[in-house]
Amino acid sequence: MIPAEKQWGRVAAVDIDSGKVAWKHDTEQPLIGGGLATAGCLYFFGESNGNFNALDSKTGKKASVSKTRSEEDVEDLGHYLAGLY
Fold first, then answer.
1. Would you give the DSSP letter of residue 40?
2. Chain-wide mean pLDDT for the chain?
């Protein structure tokens, strides 16, 4: 982290056929861990401010956002959704 620099994150999807960026979603905070894509066309990921986000994986539009207590909770939620708990 560079203290004088604005912190941010980015999630992007690439069209596998064309190799071009299909969509991108910028966040106010850095991302925590990896994301989780579901068969239901949702992409879940967390930010360092405790936001747990869901995007429509086809369009990149925000489907929901939930505030957790901390960035550690974001990682736990991802493991829970992946069936690791």
1. T
2. 82
For the chain, the domains span 9-81
Confirm if 25 and 63 have CB atoms less than 8 A apart.
Answer: no
Q: E strands along 1-85, which residues?
A: 9-14, 21-27, 31-37, 42-47, 51-56, 62-67
Q: Hey, what CATH topology would domain 9-81 get?
A: Thrombin, subunit H (2.40.10)
Report the length, in residues, of the chain: 85
Q: What is the DSSP letter of 7?
A: P
Render pLDDT for 69-81 as a digit per residue (tens, 0 to 9).
Answer: 655 555 556 555 6
Q: 29-52 pLDDT, tens per residue?
A: 888 777 888 889 999 888 888 888
Q: Contact at 8 Å (CB) between 28 and 8? A: yes
pTM for the full model?
0.74
Q: Please say whether the beta carbons of 33 and 52 come within 8 A.
A: no
